[in-house]
Amino acid sequence: MAVLTLEHVTKAFTGSKKDVVAVDDVSIDIADGEFLVLVGPSGCGKTTVLRMIAGLEVPTDGEIRLDGKVINDESPKNRNIAMVFQNYALYPHMTVRENMRFGLEESADIPDAEMERKVRETAELLDIGELLDRKPKELSGGQQQRVALGRAIVRDPAVFLLDEPLSNLDAKLRAHMRTELQRIQEELRVTTVFVTHDQTEAMTMGDRIAVLSDGELQQIGTPLECYHTPANRFVAEFIGSPSMNFFEMEVQGSRLVSRAVGGRFEYHVSEQTRETIGDRAEVVLGVRPEDIIVSDDADGRHAFEAVVDVVEPMGNENNVYLTFDGENTNPETFIATVDGFKQISAGQPATVHIPEDAISIFDATTGETLRHRVLTGDLSVTLT
Fold first, then answer.
1. What is the mean pLDDT of residues 13-26?
2. Which residues contact 354 (CB under 8 A, 6 or more apart)?
3. Which of 9, 225, 375, 378 has the least CB density, counted as fewest CB within 10 Å?
4. Residue boundaries of the structural domains of the chain
5. What is the CATH number of domain 245-371?
6. 59 closest CA partner among 41, 75, 73, 38
7. How far apart are alpha carbons 36 and 29 in whole angstroms?
8. pTM of the prediction?
9. Burial of residue 74, with CB atoms counted within 10 A of its CB: 0-12 exposed, 13-18 middle, 19 or more buried
10. What is the pLDDT of residue 165?
């Protein structure tokens, strides 16, 4: 069990023309036994953060502390940290048993009987007890992943580092292994840092998630905090599928007028919302697809006439792409998520209602959140 702290950690790589800053002044406190997910697009620096924690990269600046001790200069083998790689990195000439024992044999003076006990207990935990005498080529992708996890677990490390371990699995197995990983981590209560570019994995697995972009930490919080109260437009766009809709708006008194569709979308805001905008001439209005109500007879100042462009049936729900400019051959579209039994066809007119409680507003220049959707309840807890 361990507390892991990153304090103002920066990593720059020296190039032939200029330095590339892969991680820029990242500070994160990871609690004892916490499951933290680092999430962001490819190239955002999340794997570099993981490699610095493991000791495979040396920070250019800042400190990494394990239970209060600075480990910047500690060799990887002395950090009591286990890492599971994306490609599993199993030795093809070794059996499952030998792969799982390898780390113990290299890092600790443990009797053979004790090693065998640890390997068998871990194999049973991962439901691979009957595979101990097989070699990696005889295993499925999911089984290989369990072996890689087992090799890390038998070492009884202070911290687990998982670098996109589910990315090579098919969709059904990924969903199953998400649940299995959570179960294993809950049972072992080992501090865990999990790296992924998949926001669904981040939302469903993490006690907290840390969102990175271009090497900078954008927000850290529970999945519900990042989803419902994003710190900026990037987080609002990255977290959630389908993504939040965004409309670039000119501020004209209490009216927000869309720039993209020639004024066909005009949104009136309350005095309280107008005050949050201040003296800005332009803002970005955001609304989640599930907050857009599609009906035949909605009215009022937050109801708008639209045209259905494309319908994506998803089974229990439909993703409906709509536009305010049905005459344009390449219209600007936005997405509403509706019940799967609702009959909607491409080309038909529709009325959409966007309640003011559901909108978020962002600074058009910085992307900073000026107003969150109105919510009730406590977002500081996760659903585990």
1. 88
2. 267, 287, 291, 292, 293, 302, 304
3. 378
4. 4-237, 245-371
5. 2.40.50.140
6. 73
7. 10
8. 0.89
9. middle
10. 86
Question: What pLDDT shows up at residue 379?
Answer: 64
Q: State phi, psi for 252 to the nearest 5 degrees.
A: -130, 85
Answer whether 6's CB lies under 8 Å from 27's CB.
Answer: yes
Residue 69's φ and ψ, nearest 5 degrees, are: -95, 130
Give the pLDDT confidence score for residue 1 in this predicted structure.
62
Residue 248, strand partner residues = 284
CATH of domain 4-237: 3.40.50.300
CB 33, CB 1: distance < 8 Å: yes
pLDDT of residue 33: 95
- With CA atoms as reference, report the closest residue to 249 among 284, 274, 273: 284
For strands 245-252 and 303-313, give the pairing: unpaired
Q: 84-100 in b/e burial notation, b at 16+ Cβ within 10 A?
A: bbbebebeeeebbbbbb
Instruction: Report pLDDT digits (tens) over 89-114.
Output: 899 999 999 999 987 877 667 888 99
**How many angstroms separate the CA atoms of 113 and 92, rounded?**
24
Chain position carrying tokens 């003076």:
109
Q: Three-state DSSP class for 353?
A: strand
